[in-house]
Amino acid sequence: MGDYELHNEEIAVCIALLGAELKSLKDIHSGREYMWSGDPAFWKRVSPVLFPLVGNYRNKQAVYEGKAYPLSQHGFARDREFTLVSQTDEEAWFALESDETTRECYPFDFRLELGYRLSGREVEVLWRVKNTGKETMYFSIGGHPAFACPLNEEGNKEGYSFWFDSGEPLETRIIGPDGLATDDHEEYFLDEGTLPITEELFDQDALVVEGGQAHEVRLLDPSGDAFVTMQFDAPLFGLWSPPGKKAPFICIEPWYGRCDHKDFRGTIEEREWGNMLEEGGEFNASYHIIV
Questions:
Q1: CB 261, CB 269: distance < 8 Å
Q2: pLDDT (tens digit per residue) in 226-274
Q3: Which CDD domains does the UniProt record give (predicted)?
Q4: Rounded to whole angstroms, how far apart are CA atoms 48 and 206?
Q5: CA atoms of 73 and 51, how far apart (whole Å)
Q6: 172 within 8 A of 205, measured Cβ to Cβ
Q7: Is a pLDDT exceeding 80 seen at residue 84?
Q8: What is the longest distance spanned by two Cα atoms in the chain?
Q9: All structural domains of the chain with their residue ranges
Q10: Which candidate, 157, 197, 146, places its Cα nearest to that of 34?
């Protein structure tokens, strides 16, 4: 399941060195698994980190100092082996550093650290990005955790819903079939903060919510009880389940960055929602999973 395990009196998690990916989050007392199983018939991943790209570059490449750097959707970190930096019963840190392979598709020197910290029934997922080069560094980073929905991956999503810490309607940006942002938006009206989950909800792929419209999202079972709560400060987030597959999971994805707009013609420095670090700079962010 995973290479490393953390636990306290309430929960246990497993983390793989490949991608420093959270593979399992279980209730110690009931044995209930909250993460998606990673069945490749639907989607082989469980909780990949998206770095140094969230979504797609236009034409699958970014331009920096006149040179094109090709990079596939969501970047390379999820497919790279991390190293263990430190571990206790309730906290572990993993690291990935730039090398000749990463420089072929991403021009900056970096150190990416991922941490997992347990507290009660909560997992804090921590990101630390360091610019180890001499140039200003441009990057995006995001989470992509997938939770079992319906519970135990049995039945369908009928009766399940989202709850958001915003009473306002959610405005989402439509992503086109090419994986790029369009000018189109869709508005979802909430009933006391809730939005029903239906198979049709993701017909246009992910719901992309920009501009800090919500910072807490809960998954509610058919009785209206929350079984997973995500908390984050990220300015964007995505909601996703593979369209048309009746896949038994839901992703709640905090992002610092997103795909390019379909009409984008700029350089990596000019990308929307991007982040920058000066030489020696450090970026820190995290999100919380509560079960």
A1: no
A2: 999 999 999 999 999 999 889 999 999 999 999 999 999 999 999 999 9
A3: Aldose_epim_lacX
A4: 16
A5: 10
A6: no
A7: yes
A8: 57
A9: 4-290
A10: 146
pLDDT at 167: 79
pLDDT in tens, 43-75: 999 999 999 999 999 999 999 999 999 999 999
* 8 Å CB contact between 116 and 40: no
| CA gap 72, 105 in Å, rounded | 9
Can you tell me the distance from the alpha carbon of 24 to that of 36, in angstroms, rounded to the nearest whole number? 8
Rounded CA-CA distance 237/215 in Å is 9
**Whole-number pLDDT of residue 1:** 54
Enumerate residues 6+ apart whose C-beta is below 8 A from 240: 202, 205, 206, 207, 250, 251, 253
Percent of the chain residues topping a pLDDT of 90 = 93
- Among positive and negative, which fits the CA dihedral 97, 138, 208, 218? positive
State the amino acid at position 278 in one-letter form: E
Which residues lie across from 225 on neighbouring strands? none
Please give the Cα distance from 144 to 257 (Å, whole number): 13
Task: Give the Cα separation of 110 and 116 in Å (integer).
Answer: 20
* Cα 134-140-146 angle, rounded to 5 deg: 145
For 207-221, the pLDDT digits (tens) are 999 999 999 999 999
Please give the pLDDT value at position 153. Answer: 77
Residue with tokens 């395990």: 5
Report whether 47 contacts 148 (CB < 8 A).
no
CATH number among 3.40.367.20, 2.70.98.10, 3.40.50.1820, 3.40.50.11930, domain 4-290 = 2.70.98.10
**Ramachandran quadrant class, 63 (left: phi over 0; alpha: psi -120 to 50; beta: rest):** beta
Q: Can you give the C-alpha Rg of the chain in angstroms?
A: 19
Which pLDDT band, with edges at 50, 70 and 90, does 140 fall under? very high
pLDDT at 18: 97
DSSP 3-state of 79:
helix
